[in-house]
Amino acid sequence: MRKLSAATILVSLCAHLTPVAATRIPAVAPHVNDPQRPLLETARTATFRNSSEALQDVLDALEAMQETYFDKFAGTWGDAIDWTAAVAGTHVSATLTGIVDGLDLSFGGVCSDLLQWENVVNQYYTQTAFFYFGENVFALRNQAFDDMLWVVLGWLESTKFADMYARRHENGQEFETSPWHGLQLSPMAAHRARVFYELASVGWDESLCNGGMTWNPSLNPYKNAITNELFAAASISMYLYFPGDNNSAPFISSTQEQYHKVHNPAHLENAVKSYKWLKESGMRNQAGLYQDGFHVTGWHRFPNGTINPGTGHCDDLDRMVYTYNQGVMLTASRGLWLATGARSYLDDGHELITNVIRATGWPNTDNIWRGLGRGGTLEEFCDHGLYCSQDGQTFKGIFFLHLTEFCRPLRASEKDMAFRLVVGGLDDQIYHYHLERCAAYSKWIYHNADAALATKNQAGLFGMWWNVPYQTAHIAEWESLAGNQSLPAGVFDHRNPALISSSLISSGDPNDRGRGRTVETQSGALAVLRAKWQWQAVYS
Ligand SMILES: *[C@@H]1O[C@H](CO)[C@@H](O)[C@H](O)[C@H]1NC(C)=O
Ligand SMILES: *[C@@H]1O[C@H](CO)[C@@H](O)[C@H](O)[C@H]1NC(C)=O
Ligand SMILES: *[C@@H]1O[C@H](CO)[C@@H](O)[C@H](O)[C@H]1NC(C)=O
Ligand SMILES: *[C@@H]1O[C@H](CO)[C@@H](O)[C@H](O)[C@H]1NC(C)=O
């Protein structure tokens, strides 16, 4: 086998990409923040120029997130908690995918530009590798089932990116040499995803409520939306994207062995059953939004260990509505369609998205709370009170991450995969119908991205309450709004338990109050800006 040096590969890669048309490639500025040198300069259409502005916003948000919050020595975001760090890592991997996916290199390239892109990608990819070692895995192994499943989704996102980038990097050429170096991380990422998937799978319980995942092994049974959505999303993502794992540590048994395979039917089965259970659980409200979850009336564990199962049914509903509970299900819907070809999964997703958009008031942009936002912009209920917890600050970004995945066009490798998994392959008409529905969300997405952008401060950091522009002139109006809203009787925001205190409603920009700007709020902006980049690059 002929071995090629890295330099030879790059030269041949560049040669392959020498301009076919007279158009010049996007040039990459060495410093993405240098206003004198826009990131992309192109002779292409206005649409492309516009989407390159969106890409610039994505890169700026990512750079500020990593420079401000990521601690390279520790390999993690120092102020994050374990699950929000797992989500931050997912955003970084998904953003890399979005950047590379959206770049149209096919119209010709200049080698130095490509080398600079390579450097941008490698910089952040290396940081995800640092995080592999910085992630608090020993603690996470004993946390709630949803915590474990965020870990699964994060490392699958990393292997998805590596697979895509390795293919893209080769650009159709078959190099008789070692593949893209980043693939070295994938077996480790796959191993971690597999181990945490197995740890979480024991949360499935049929002794109560005829099924469903339990949220937390050490608390009274609570079957909530997020854990079930995560189990459905993680199961179908394992089925589709898990590249296999030959590392049997930390244990191997006959039951666990089944989970090591690629396209494992056990993963598909878990996805179908948890998706179905959740859909039929009665967890949605009249607006069609997922509420938080079910307790079992009367369930009790006596000190001697005896359990009184109470009614044994999911009959005590926590009616709080959060943005992230409308998001993760979308990845499950998309994956189940890809794995089965069944249109109903896509319809479920579009219905949920439509309900969310309606619950922001859109296209109405007045100041009245509509259930999940106001002014056409997504909000957490806690946003207006400036008391969102670290959990609450993470939610909107999760929604947009999964919305973007839901509407991400299929790559050629995914179409091939579907052809192998679904008899006859995917129905093109259904796929095009799906893309058309996705395209129709663009205005709402731009509206939300622009609202998030308006919260950006001089350091490039974003706030949590997207409806309040940075240094707003209308501060008195916002302050009155902040104390002006209450939850329906009997609903308690247990994820953001702080009461509005006068110390939160002090001075300064509203988005600096409460917990202020954090890696979590930054990741939320990153996600919505990336959605804008995807919609502009793909759908306009
Ligand atoms: C593109 O950008 C121009 C100038 O910023 C703006 O007027 C136009 O509406 C944008 N087009 C789209 C499709 O966003
Ligand atoms: C696992 O080992 C088998 C047999 O050696 C090999 O074919 C396969 O590619 C390996 N899978 C992974 C993910 O390394
Ligand atoms: C455990 O305690 C409960 C409540 O005191 C009692 O009803 C039950 O019989 C006890 N079970 C055992 C096995 O002792
Ligand atoms: C606050 O609530 C009162 C009573 O519902 C309403 O009249 C007022 O307009 C609200 N203020 C704002 C800023 O929304």
TrEMBL record:
Statement: the UniProt record of this protein carries the keyword Signal: yes
Gene3D superfamilies membership: 1.50.10.20
Cited Pfam families: Glyco_hydro_76
Alphabetical keyword list: Signal
Naturally occurring in which organism (per UniProt): Lithohypha guttulata
InterPro entries: 6-hairpin_glycosidase_sf, Glyco_hydro_76, MUG_Protein
Signal sequence extent: 1-22
Protein name stated in the entry: Glycosyl hydrolase
GO BP: carbohydrate metabolic process
Lineage of source species: Eukaryota, Fungi, Dikarya, Ascomycota, Pezizomycotina
